[in-house]
Design a protein that fits this description.
alpha/beta, globular
């Protein structure tokens, strides 16, 4: 019921013209680690309904570029949008849409939840792992990776996998995350040269 009713962040997002409250999760990450800056190329996986992409566009400015990927169509997208499955979308298509290698890969991807905590966790971590595969191929050395993860048995192993490719890796449960949510975010910076 509380999800339908909304809260402070939902109302704040609506007043600011953002499509979803999730923007304040990325805003907190940005305030703490400054992963986004002017002129960067950013790819946003699981971008619908577009709030993260809009925030990223505001951070990178007119000289930067934002590519969004989602299974759902997004209206009035602030950049280039690909309606595609991340498991089958080619790296070359993403590079072409972005105009080159990414400086930052954002992933807020989540499965359609089934209500079974373990099943939902496994399916979400699979999406996170695919996002990491893409990040290893498309993010430039020194770049950043921000990824949603559902807490559970496989979460720690995923974080360790990220550490193999990035110099600094942090975990954060943003304040805008609902109290009942099992999600947290991995914030990885300083992609290692040659990491794959």
């Amino acid at each position: 019921m509380s999800y339908r009713r909304g809260d402070h962040y939902t109302r704040r997002a609506k007043d600011a013209g953002y499509a979803a409250r999730s923007v304040y999760k990325l805003e907190e990450i940005q305030k703490k680690w400054k992963v986004l800056s002017r002129g960067q190329r950013v790819i946003d996986l699981g971008c619908a309904p577009g709030s993260w992409s809009r925030f990223a566009r505001e951070c990178v400015g007119t000289n930067g570029s934002v590519l969004g990927v989602d299974l759902q169509e997004v209206g009035s997208f602030p950049g280039t949008f690909l309606c595609a499955d991340i498991y089958t979308l080619s790296v070359s298509s993403m590079l072409e849409g972005l105009g080159g290698a990414a400086d930052v890969l954002l992933s807020d991807m989540a499965p359609a939840t089934m209500g079974n905590r373990y099943t939902d966790h496994v399916r979400q971590v699979q999406l996170a792992e695919q996002a990491l595969v893409v990040a290893r191929e498309i993010v430039s050395p020194g770049g950043a990776f921000v990824c949603k993860v559902f807490e559970g048995a496989d979460a720690a192993n995923f974080v360790q996998e990220v550490r193999l490719s990035f110099g600094t890796v942090k975990r954060l449960k943003p304040k805008a995350t609902r109290g009942s949510s099992v999600e947290f975010f991995v914030v990885a910076t300083q992609k290692k040269d040659g990491a794959s």
